[in-house]
């Protein structure tokens, strides 16, 4: 079908080997060097980075107008790995237009979605193949891959005018972290998180 943004469009998702869309307009790559300050164990981060600037996650997105009424959509792929005991994850974000939602459909792998609101609510949802997750308006969200060897792949869709606010998360992190303890994923308090009045 046409790639004209005023026309309907389709793409296919290959389930053979690595999952990638049959076509895409944007391909965002995030390596360890792009995740400075995001992991709890900074010494482990520096050691891992000095050995190899590993690929942490990537996003394939279809081009749509960034206006209300449109739905931006694509695939997020978080690769397996850890920094110390903390699993590979996305940077995470709020939407610039806070009262906009996002929906995720897990196509492959296992992981968690860490979420929180500016008011202090938080939740960590489990993601497995065929899980559909609705992230309501006002909730920041971050994907975490807890599988030892498989990519966490999700299809996402969100309003065209929503925008991404990464800066808030880069400054404060999330209230909760997902780490490996005794061979299993565990949700823990973020020891580096500070309430707004203490920043």
What does this protein structure show overall?
A hairpin with a 5-residue loop joins strand 7 and strand 8. The chain has 199 residues and is mainly beta. It is globular and about 50 Å long. Helices cover 8% and strands 38% of the residues. It has one domain: Jelly Rolls, CATH 2.60.120.10. A 6-stranded antiparallel beta sheet has the order 1-2-3-11-6-9, with no helix packed on it. It has a 3-stranded antiparallel beta sheet with strand order 8-7-10, with no helix packed on it.
| CATH homologous superfamily identity | Jelly Rolls
Identify the CATH class.
Mainly Beta
Percentage of residues in strands? 35-45%
Q: Mind telling me which CATH architecture this is? A: Sandwich
- What is the strand tally? 13
The domain tally reads 1
Structural class, from helix and strand content? mainly beta
- In order across it, which strands form the biggest sheet? 1-2-3-11-6-9
Discrete helix count: 2
- Percent helix among the residues? under 10%
The CATH topology is: Jelly Rolls
Shape: globular
Order of helices and strands: EHEEEEEEEEEEHEE
Low-pLDDT windows of residues: none
Radius of gyration from the CA trace? 17 Å
N-to-C terminal Cα separation, in Å?
50 Å
What does the largest sheet look like? Answer: 6 strands, antiparallel
Average of per-residue pLDDT values: 92
